[in-house]
């Protein structure tokens, strides 16, 4: 299994802070997206990312090549941390949303797109945690089913079932909000 972060492993094992900074630069956006999608809060997602990189920094000296790719390990640890946080407290629906550029002009178009995005985020947060994680890893992070299943600690068939249930649930929730 080829690891795209392989060039950093020797530096990370040796405790080289510039290797850690390079890893954070490469992987923090992906990790933050996963944590944000699961938690619905940008500050909690930042905390999860910081803690995950800190855990990796501590584990790096004992890193064994071939056991897992670094990104897979990071996502698995972050996902588990998110699950732990969700078990402790169900998040409120998001109040602060990331701004995404709207290709169309005009306030009305921006409002329609914002309402759709808010509806999607609300629907995603209404899904069970594991379905939300499966959808996030597949569609937000474009991970293969094998990698996503590994991150979630389940088999590929179980992952596929989560995707199917998540898509159906999301579709139903989105249709509900369109008719309200």
TrEMBL record:
Pfam families registered for this protein in UniProt: Sigma70_r2, Sigma70_r4_2
Keywords attached to this entry: DNA-binding, Sigma factor, Transcription, Transcription regulation
Keyword presence, Transcription: yes
Domain (RNA polymerase sigma-70 region): residue spans on this chain: 24-90
Species the sequence originates in: Algimonas ampicilliniresistens
Top-rank lineage group of the source organism: Bacteria
All copies of domain RNA polymerase sigma factor 70 region 4 type, residue ranges: 120-168
Cell inner membrane as UniProt keyword: no
Name recorded for this polypeptide: RNA polymerase sigma factor
InterPro entries tied to this protein: RNA_pol_sigma-70-like, RNA_pol_sigma-70_dom, RNA_pol_sigma70_r2, RNA_pol_sigma70_r4_t2, RNA_pol_sigma_r2, RNA_pol_sigma_r3/r4-like, WH-like_DNA-bd_sf
NCBIfam families per record: sigma70-ECF
Protein family according to the UniProt entry: Belongs to the sigma-70 factor family. ECF subfamily.
């Amino acid at each position: 299994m080829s690891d795209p972060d392989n060039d950093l492993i020797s530096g990370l094992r040796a405790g080289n802070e510039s290797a850690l900074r390079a890893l954070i630069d490469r992987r923090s956006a992906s990790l933050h997206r996963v944590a944000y999608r699961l938690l619905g809060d940008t500050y909690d997602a930042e905390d999860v990312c910081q803690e995950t990189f800190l855990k990796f920094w501590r584990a790096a000296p004992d890193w064994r090549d071939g056991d897992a790719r670094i990104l897979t390990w990071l996502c698995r640890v972050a996902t588990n941390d998110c699950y732990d946080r969700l078990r402790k407290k169900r998040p409120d629906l998001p109040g602060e949303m990331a701004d995404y550029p709207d290709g169309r002009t005009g306030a009305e178009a921006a409002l329609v797109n914002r309402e759709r995005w808010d509806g999607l985020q609300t629907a995603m947060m209404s899904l069970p945690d594991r379905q939300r994680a499966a959808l996030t890893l597949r569609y937000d992070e474009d991970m293969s089913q094998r990698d996503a299943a590994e991150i979630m600690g389940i088999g590929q068939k179980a992952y596929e079932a989560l995707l199917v249930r998540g898509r159906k649930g999301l579709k139903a929730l989105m249709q509900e909000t369109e008719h309200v």
